[in-house]
Amino acid sequence: VHFTGVSWVTVVEAMKRVLESLNLNIVEMVDENATLDGGDVLFTGREFFVGLSRRTNQRGAEILADTFKDYAVSTVPVHDSLHLKSFCSMAGPNLIAIGSSEAAQKALKTMQQMSDHRYDKLTVPDDAAANCIYLNIPSKGHVLLHRAPEEYPESAKVFEKLKDHMLIPIAATELEKVDGSLTCCSVLINKASEL
User: Fold this and answer.
1) Where do the TM regions start and end (predicted)?
2) If pLDDT is split at 50, 70 and 90, which confidence band does 32 have?
């Protein structure tokens, strides 16, 4: 598989080197039948939801569950979308941003049925806008990167209601043309700075 002229093997090896340089534990999936796309993995801080899509299968979800034994791992069928984070993501410590489409709402219902925890939800009119990045930065508090108002004006209005969040709108129209989104371009690492 190639992406903009670079093989996935090259990307994976480069990412592995970076994670190793940070002294992070790396688990490699060696089962050829397992597929697991990061866009299908939603970690809430309490548990994992794994979208079963064209890019992620049951075996990939099982390997994730074996790797993170301290967390519940529940699978969510994904239909009519590329992956789970095409229509949902975490917008806060207990807050799931979710799109308004029938597929998104059906997935949310499945997540609610699978979980012992009750999450708050933030429903946005546009599925793609539900893909946002939440950060809890010690000096800044709750920070939310979300799609720009010029791209999804109605969804941006919903995000603007989050008065306790520092909101950072990001234009990602070009990324969207190649099935990319905000979370696709992010690797969040919870590690103290050693500068």
Assistant:
1) none
2) very high
